């Protein structure tokens, strides 16, 4: 396995550089830096941003106007970007209590959310408007993906606050936004809690049930970043790109219904990049690996810039202009980012990843 | 999550759909709900799949999934699992510890009784795979008789309430791994991996230079080895481990090479009882990244395509059952588990919690689910 091979080579290098013979490299300063300068601020930012959604939805519903529509759309986009910054943190507070799926039910290749929402609305489920009741319902009904389905039409127009079923949808939208803000608050609070999950990461040693060494703690964070890149490519981009331009399915892009696909995916890349920079791995890398962080930053920047250059609803622009080619380019860039992180950077640091690849049978 | 080891937490389909993930139900403490099912099959026709897995907190379990990639139930395992025997009616599972584990667990997802933990015989450990008899009354488990350095099939009677070990059959080699019951219901095909191990040195390989892997066709009634196929002598370090039966009655086997990885030997072969192994060709460009390691081998329902996963290379390769040609390969990082789904499609699981649906080898896989914190283990089974 390439990864193991690199990792094996790199362990020698990293240990030679970093630690006295027989002693493993200490990654606890890196874990602490990612926690303090990335995870806590980013989850706090998501909590603060999502707190703007309930008033924005309620203002739009009580007095629909260009102004309240724009304010809601802006709040929704900012919330998705703040979520995009942290979705790769698939461990600890974001995944306990199914929070990630409750915030955004993705992927949803079988349109489960759409079917469940239709059914709940047809059944006139009166508890849809109750945030506490909603938090106990299907995860597909609870979060920002459900909000997108009821607030935007399939042509990406913001329709919340208009139409015959305005009242039911507004009540439901309000409950979703409160539920999202509440989940976001819980995530931020748990990451801030010095005795919570961060204590597990920071006290990694033989006596710690979950992380037996600081290497295991940093691997949890690092491998989540790598998985985040795989999600962007395999789950978000490739199924939408299909086998060719004429087979593209732009509706499969995340949050494309609300024209937020490019902003969301750019935010995902920026989050993974910023967490990597927060770790400050440079001093651990030998001269032969010193190029990696700079190169990764350059590639992350290019991919995010390409995504940010795509304006308007990609659902409508996919077959026009260069949108398809640009998204295809981003998929290639993200693949290269994955390789550079999982093979070169992990190798340079002596980290390992994979489950089946690492130790099969 | 709050599953205790060996304690079943199951979710019935109704509450699952009501809670899709029954976020509340799943998160609830110690809810030991009704069996997976209670009319599940009659209620909603959904194909189900089972796989061993590692959970976010580092514990091991067997997970039951539906065709949308949603986890319907998890059964905690005492340690890392591997493969399982699924009864012909799809209603019973005997899950095995990964080698050199000593537990197996008999699970009835459609019943609310506790799973039954079975310990291997003294002097034996499980190798991770097993197979039901055609009538569903017996389970054959591959085991290591490590003192006499021989592989055996432990035979368990599971027709009553428990599991009674009623005998054993020699497999004709060392390190038996995957096994397939042939359509005649009396011939068992065993992949003897050829690697000698001893629980005193868990996962150490003791006989690489003298490895002698084979695929043996056994007569279950007499215990006789009917046929034993080997690759050519220069491939004796290719441990033959995982198999599938295609629609033409050919057995496909995938290997894991214990020699110099620079050699890039062939990794996949097909054979019948009467015809010796025919090796497939993997183009160099693809082969160079595979680390000479095949993880799972599975045929689709129509039996015309065989998939082989190469988790160390992050690739799944697809083969034509009729011509033996490579139809295509898909990149799936850490992908290993494979199961047939729908008419001719495959479900692919990976160590990062991903579940993909692939309609045909030329298509782009659709990610059905990306289960946070979950690592799906080597093999997946359709129930």
Automatic annotation (TrEMBL), chain A:
Transmembrane segments: none annotated. The keyword Cell division does not apply. InterPro entries: Imelysin-like, Imelysin-like_IPPA, Imelysin_sf. The keyword Signal applies. It comes from the Bacteria. Residues 41-339 form the Imelysin-like domain. It holds the Pfam family Peptidase_M75. Its main location: other. GO terms for cellular component: cell envelope. It is found in: Cell envelope. Residues 1-24 form the signal peptide. Keywords: Signal. This is Imelysin-like domain-containing protein.
UniProtKB/TrEMBL annotation, chain B:
It holds the Pfam family DUF1513. This is DUF1513 domain-containing protein. It comes from Roseibium suaedae. PROSITE patterns: TAT. Gene3D superfamilies: YVTN repeat-like/Quinoprotein amine dehydrogenase.
